[in-house]
Amino acid sequence: MTFESTNRNKLLYPELSYKISGILFRVHNKLGRFCREIQYGDLLEIELKNAGIIFEREKVLPIQEISGEDASNKVDFLIENKILLDIKAKKFVTKEDYFQMQRHLKSSKLELGLIVNFRNTYIKAQRVININ
Q1: CATH number attached to the domain at 9-129
Q2: How does pLDDT run across 111-125, given as a tens digit for each residue?
């Protein structure tokens, strides 16, 4: 097995991702499925602080190239300067959400983004890898 193929199969930031997942489950268990994104974000901010995780909320990312109608380049959370986290509270996560995360990853030059939809009965953060 070559270094390239080994590197391709490597899970990015497994320990930090695990901690974030636990916090996301806690927030979901406390608030349920039918709150607004801002409410999830507020509780998530408290839980991240309590866990001692360094983060920036509503991080404005540099704009390099905007395609499509959504010109916003702000991500809900930047965690430990490693992972972008985008929170949703809607029926479905769409392709546009995925492309938005790709845009965020590209402009931030980070490797990993997480999209979590709190409207789901069971939450699971969708991992998005920077394709650039």
Answers
A1: 3.40.1350
A2: 999 999 999 999 999
Q: What pLDDT is stored for residue 23 in this prediction?
A: 98
**84: closest CA among 1, 32, 132, 17?**
17
- Supply the DSSP symbol for 9: T
> Which candidate, 120, 119, 106, places its Cα nearest to that of 128?
106
Q: Cα separation of 130 and 117, whole Å?
A: 20
pTM of the model: 0.87
Domain ranges of the chain: 9-129
- Give the C-alpha distances (Å, rounded to integers) separating 18 from 11, 23, 68: 11, 9, 33
Q: Which amino acid appears at position 71 of this protein?
A: A
Burial class (CB in 10 A: 0-12, 13-18, 19+), 58: exposed
